[in-house]
Write a structure and sequence with these properties.
Number of strands: 10
Strand content: 35-45%
Strand order of the largest sheet: 3-5-4-7-6
Radius of gyration: 20 Å
Number of domains: 1
Helix content: 10-25%
Low-confidence stretches: 1-27
Order of helices and strands: HEEEEEEEEEE
Structural class: mainly beta
Largest sheet: 5 strands, mixed, barrel
Shape: globular
Mean pLDDT: 80
Length: about 180
Amino acid sequence: MKKVSYFLVVLSCIMLGFTSCGENGPKEGGNMKRVAAAFYYGENLFPGMEYFSLRFTSGTLDLNQDPVVGTGDVIVLDIFSECQDGMIFPKEGEYTIVDMERIENGYAMAGANYSGSNLGCYLMFAEDGEATGGDYITSGTIKIEGTPDRAVVTANVELEILGESRTYKYVGPLAIKDLSEK
């Protein structure tokens, strides 16, 4: 009987330990499930404006597999922001998605509208690892919170072709590759 009681007490302590670790550790969430790529270009592409390109995937889509697998969206968010406190990470705040004519630090670039390039905020859709189309993000906001260890990125966007509103959110680590010196 003592062995059974001892075993139950030890098991309870172990379970409480796992539970408390889970509650205190960083939580990930949102419908943007993975970081596909995240780059900081500094002022290399747009003199006088610090440029970040953040790319996420939703659903089961995973661009980091070879070949690409899953079904979902690729969400591309291109913003102009100063770096946060000496880190390669955008300043916390809300960025309005605007056309290139109004671009400056503190804004995001509306979809794929700069000299016919793939710069800006836009979506690509995929099913079973194959591209099935896309849409331009023409307006909305992108909110950046946190740090590279625990970022929260929320995009409330308007789509041009589908004519609908969507909200995307990512919670988790966001390591951004520095391409500003290259």
